Amino acid sequence: MIRSRDHPRYESLKIREKLVNGFKAGIVCAEGLIAHGRGEAFDYLVGEKTIELAMESTRVAVATLSLAEHPVISVNGNTAALVPDEIVHLSNATNALLEVNLFHRTEERMDKIIDHLKMHGAANVLGKDANARIPNISHERAKMDKEGIYKADVVLVPLEDGDRCEALVNMGKTVIVVDLNPLSRTAQAASITIVDNVIRAIPNMARLADELAKSPKTELERICASYDNKKILEKIIRRIKMI
Fold first, then answer.
1. Which residues make Cβ contacts (< 8 Å) with residue 4, sequence separation at least 6?
2. Other Cβ atoms closer than 10 A to 136
3. For 10-60, how does the pLDDT look when each residue is reduced to its tens digit (9 = 90+)?
């Protein structure tokens, strides 16, 4: 347990502790710990805070989820370990289904993540009985539920793999991703990229979902109308270069 609140890396240490606990519980895989470290390195480049450009993408992402006919939030081990309450809150606020999707998939790990999300308030979690596949993907993340990601018009995929993002876009889906690396294949292929840490992005999305809950459809459409993901990424890349 972290006790030194005056430690300069206190918030970062709390996140690491959550992931380690998730690993011990069988929710996070060892590779997920490495992936977090890579993301944390990019977080330094945006000042370890939600920048205005990321908030713009976040607002558009929430409006897009709210406008969707069949939105789905894809959940992996790291997301489940770090922001379980917030991801369930976002699901409820946007009427989006939750579906567990894993690269390092085992039935035991699927069960543990689903149970973990239910412990944090999720009423129903898809993914266990995957009965469809994403075309042209050979690994385990190709597995999906016919009533979930397969059917979705909008998919939120925190902490994504680039090939699956591209494949989902090619299926005609609007894909929202959270990725701290604006140059990654995921960030570049997505419809909406939130360049932010998932521990900030998902709570921000949940809060905005509450704020926009009573907004008319015309207001949500207005928020989305002028959004250009490529321009946002270009601005963020220029900002990082100036550091």
1. 10
2. 11
3. 677 788 888 888 889 889 877 777 777 777 888 989 889 999 999 999 999
CA distance 16 to 43: 14
Q: What is the pTM of this model?
A: 0.92
Cα separations (Å) of 34 from 31, 59, 182, 210? 5, 29, 19, 33
Residue type, 118: K
User: The dihedral of CA 24, 27, 30, 35: what is its sign?
Assistant: negative
pLDDT tens-digit readout, 166-182 = 999 999 999 999 999 99
> What are 132's strand-pairing partners?
144
User: Lowest mean pLDDT: which of 46-50, 207-211, 229-233?
Assistant: 46-50
Pick from 171, 207, 242, 164: nearest CA to 61: 207
How far apart (Å, rounded) are the C-alpha atoms in residues 188 and 182?
A: 7
Rg of the chain taking only CA atoms, in angstroms = 17
Q: What are phi and psi of 157, to 5 degrees?
A: -125, 85
Domains in the chain, ordered, with CATH? 52-241 (3.40.50.12640)
